[in-house]
Recover the amino acids of this structure.
């Protein structure tokens, strides 16, 4: 028992310095961005941006007035989008399409900054997630039957009348963010060290490898896929960044995992959040996994075509 305790304490000691460094890195991204977005919202910039999406929303079966929800989701976590949805009238069909758009493209400044450290282009990930949000919306607009049942919520959005109120709300929310990040990241780092110390990562990963191959993901991805879908992309990205830094994961493999997780991540919390509001569970999970798989295989096919083209070009020059 003492030997077990020593090994667990060793894992904790090794994890704490990494955890502190990672927490500071995450907070350095999240806190300034969250303040900037709150100020943009307060000064009406987000409402202004929403006006440009009104014509596009007509193509996916949504009223232009709902564009503000999607714009909010791009810059903020899902809770903010839900608060805005509560203030707008819509049907359950419209709410389902909008929910999937927000699930695919939310909190992009923070999450894409995190994935950038693990080999993915910041602008590339932003473009991919916004583009896939509209692809998913087009798909659901064609697939879902007409449903005029109203979507009703009892949540009301925050309305701030002064800049001081905005800064106060940001300070309170930032305190919660700091505590959440410190707890989750520290526990994840300790868990990762324990799994490595006792050679459990391969044991946990092995049963999931056939599923990962179906998704088009490398054999090194099961643990990252689990973390990304349990605690989300930002926290999962922190673990991924640590593994890349230690040489346990290549940038090529982490970039491939990012493509999948960009469309389908946090399947536990985010899904339950919208299911509690009446959105169909299977539509959420099935749609996200379908398009996440499609994105990865499409990327692999494009890379394959590029390799074939380069080989033919090289052979032409050689002759």
């Amino acid at each position: 028992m003492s030997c077990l305790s020593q090994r667990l304490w060793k894992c904790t000691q090794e994890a704490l310095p990494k955890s502190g460094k990672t927490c500071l890195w995450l907070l350095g991204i999240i806190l300034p961005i969250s303040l900037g977005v709150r100020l943009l919202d307060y000064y009406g910039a987000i409402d202004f941006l929403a006006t440009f999406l009104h014509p596009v929303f007509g193509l996916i079966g949504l009223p232009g007035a709902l564009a503000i929800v999607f714009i909010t989701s791009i810059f903020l976590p899902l809770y903010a989008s839900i608060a805005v949805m509560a203030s707008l009238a819509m049907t359950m069909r419209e709410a389902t399409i909008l929910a999937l758009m927000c699930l695919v493209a939310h909190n992009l400044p923070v999450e894409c900054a995190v994935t950038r450290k693990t080999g993915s282009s910041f602008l590339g990930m932003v473009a991919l997630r916004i583009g896939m949000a509209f692809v998913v919306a087009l798909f659901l607009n064609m697939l879902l039957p007409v449903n005029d049942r109203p979507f009703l919520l009892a949540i009301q959005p925050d309305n701030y009348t002064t800049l001081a109120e905005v800064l106060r709300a940001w300070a309170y929310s930032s305190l919660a963010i700091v505590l959440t990040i410190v707890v989750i990241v520290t526990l994840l780092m300790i868990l990762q060290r324990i799994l490595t110390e006792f050679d459990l990562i391969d044991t946990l990963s092995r049963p999931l490898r056939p599923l990962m191959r179906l998704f088009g993901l490398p054999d090194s991805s099961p643990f990252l896929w689990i973390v990304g879908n349990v605690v989300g992309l930002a926290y999962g990205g922190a673990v991924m960044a640590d593994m890349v830094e230690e040489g346990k994961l290549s940038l090529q493999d982490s970039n491939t995992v990012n493509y999948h997780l960009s469309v389908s991540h946090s399947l536990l919390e985010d899904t339950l959040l919208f299911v509690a509001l009446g959105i169909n569970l299977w539509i959420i999970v099935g749609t996200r996994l379908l398009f996440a798989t499609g994105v990865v295989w499409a990327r692999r096919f494009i890379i394959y075509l590029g390799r074939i083209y380069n080989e033919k070009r090289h052979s032409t020059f050689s002759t």
About this structure: The chain has a mean pLDDT of 82. Residues 63 and 76 are 21 Å apart (CA to CA).
